[in-house]
Amino acid sequence: MSNTITLPEEKTETRTRRQPPYHVILLNDDDHTFQYVIHMLKSLFGHSPERGFLMAKEVDTKGRVIVDTTSLERAELKREQIHAFGPDPLLPRCKGSMSAEIEPAE
């Protein structure tokens, strides 16, 4: 007869840690048309023209609008894509892209 002792298995609980979400915030300026904002939001975020219009209206009246809530890495990417989108071809005085910032979502 063998003297083997079997111990009960330890149960370990695995929890997936989620990254905290961040907002991508588009900032207002007077050098971009609603058409530009709507086109940019559709191109970069997939927002419908209707949603893009509402966001363009909000950034125009309130000075800022949350255009996406996502992981920090994706928020940084989207902010850089906004900064690199280029000038508004409908306004000759426009010299560059719109501005955006990211902040932790609460």
Tell me what the structure shows:
- Helix 1 crosses helix 2.
- This protein has 3 helices and 3 strands.
- Strands 2-1-3 form a 3-stranded antiparallel beta sheet.
- It is rod-shaped.
- Helix content is 36%, strand content 18%.
- The protein has one domain (22-104): Ribosomal Protein L30, Chain: A (2-Layer Sandwich), CATH 3.30.1390.10.
- It has 106 residues and is an alpha+beta fold.
- The mean pLDDT is 92.
The total of helices stands at 3
- Structural class designation: alpha+beta
Q: Number of DSSP strands? A: 3
Shape: rod-shaped
How many domain regions?
1
- Over the alpha carbons, how many angstroms does the gyration radius reach? 23 Å
Strand fraction: 15-25%
Please estimate the helix content: 25-40%
In short:
The mean pLDDT is 92. The protein has 106 residues and is α+β, with helices and mostly antiparallel strands. The chain starts with 21 loop residues before the first strand and ends with a strand.
